[in-house]
């Protein structure tokens, strides 16, 4: 039998940002949350994602306005830098708070 508190906890879970909740995007945002910016190669190495997979997730986060992508060259080598935008930082903070409430509301 479910209790009102348990139902409130589960309904909070339904409200989390699904764009962030996807594990690969969550990893990218969590990494960007703790640094000023990171390059594409660093994110590949840290997340274990393939180039194409990271690129696809990066595009979704950029379209949502959660990250800023700056492409440049280091010498003759292309360089892609990513940073969390203010909107991305706020969305991640809200996500963390909702997930904390969900986890704290579950019985031991």
Describe this structure in words.
With 108 residues, the protein is of the alpha+beta class. It has one domain: Winged helix-like DNA-binding domain superfamily/Winged helix DNA-binding domain (Arc Repressor Mutant, subunit A), CATH 1.10.10.10. It has helices spanning 4-14, 18-21, 23-33, 40-47, 51-63, 86-105, and strands at 38-39, 67-74, 77-84. Strands 1-3-2 form a 3-stranded antiparallel beta sheet. A hairpin with a 2-residue loop joins strand 2 (67-74) and strand 3. Helix 1 runs antiparallel to helix 6 (86-105). The protein is elongated and about 55 Å long. The two termini are 17 Å apart.
Tell me the layout of helices and strands.
Layout lengths: L3 H11 L3 H4 L1 H11 L4 E2 H8 L3 H13 L3 E8 L2 E8 L1 H20 L3
Antiparallel strand pairs: 1-3, 2-3
Helix pairs in contact: 1-6
List keywords for this structure.
alpha+beta; 17% strand; 108 residues; three-stranded antiparallel sheet
Total domain units: 1
Principal-axes geometry comes out as elongated
Total number of strands = 3
* The CATH top-level class label: Mainly Alpha
Separation of termini?
Answer: 17 Å
- Number of DSSP helices? 6
CATH third-tier fold name: Arc Repressor Mutant, subunit A
Order of helices and strands: HHHEHHEEH
CATH superfamily: Winged helix-like DNA-binding domain superfamily/Winged helix DNA-binding domain
* Unreliable spans: none
Task: Quote the average pLDDT.
Answer: 90
In terms of quaternary structure, what is this?
A: single chain
DSSP helix fraction:
55-70%
Helix- and strand-based class?
alpha+beta
Sheet-strand content, in percent, reads 15-25%
The radius of gyration computed from the alpha-carbon positions, rounded to a whole number of angstroms, is 17 Å
Q: Spatial order of the strands in the main sheet?
A: 1-3-2
Annotated CATH architecture: Orthogonal Bundle
Largest sheet: 3 strands, antiparallel
């Amino acid at each position: 039998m479910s209790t009102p508190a348990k139902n409130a906890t589960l309904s909070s879970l339904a409200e989390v940002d699904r764009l962030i909740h996807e594990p690969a995007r969550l990893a990218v945002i969590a990494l960007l949350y703790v640094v000023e910016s990171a390059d594409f190669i660093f994110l590949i190495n840290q997340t274990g994602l393939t180039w194409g997979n990271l690129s696809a997730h990066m595009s979704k986060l950029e379209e949502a306005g959660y990250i800023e992508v700056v492409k440049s060259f280091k010498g003759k080598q292309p360089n892609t830098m990513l940073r969390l935008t203010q909107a991305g930082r706020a969305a991640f903070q809200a996500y963390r708070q909702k997930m904390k409430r969900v986890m704290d509301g579950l019985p031991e």
